[in-house]
Design brief:
The chain is α+β, with helices and mostly antiparallel strands and about 140 residues long. Helix content is about 50%, strand content about 10%. A hairpin with a 2-residue loop joins strand 1 and strand 2.
Length: about 140
């Protein structure tokens, strides 16, 4: 009897995982198909040839975090990503200029430029990762 209960529990858990993966993403149509992200040797290269911008992130831990924690492409709309990126990059750069510990560089993100979905998606996820792993807020 106990084994049957355990099997039913496992089947329900697996069914829940599968059904959550099959839900259509609300903003999937905003994901630009030309954007590309490549993880290689502890760095991440994000590019969109259509807008001629490329972002390279050097952080050995980001790929593991991204694979296990990031929401799928299409979960957020592009406007949300751009808004958060503007807010977080401004805060990040202000902390860098103030000499805050752990903020050693500035991020060149210009809100007047359309970087495309992929670049905004990956910058958003990197800044989310940065906040979680360093236990800080950029709001």
């Amino acid at each position: 009897m106990r084994a049957v209960g355990l099997m039913i529990g496992i089947m329900l858990l697996c069914n829940g995982c599968v059904s959550s993966q099959n839900k259509s993403l609300k903003y999937a149509d905003e994901v630009d198909q030309k954007g590309k992200t490549v993880f290689e040797d502890g760095s991440v290269k994000i590019s969109n040839p259509e807008v001629e911008y490329e972002v390279i992130i050097f952080d050995n831990q980001f790929e593991g975090w991204f694979v296990t924690r990031a929401r799928p492409r299409g979960y957020y709309n592009k406007t949300f990503l751009e808004s958060k990126n503007r807010q977080w990059v401004n805060s990040f750069n202000a902390k860098t200029r103030a000499g805050a510990r752990g903020f050693d560089y500035t991020i060149d993100y210009q809100s007047s430029i359309d970087y495309g979905y992929e670049v905004n998606y990956m910058i958003y996820n990197y800044l989310l990762y940065f906040q979680e792993t360093n236990q800080i807020r950029l709001d």
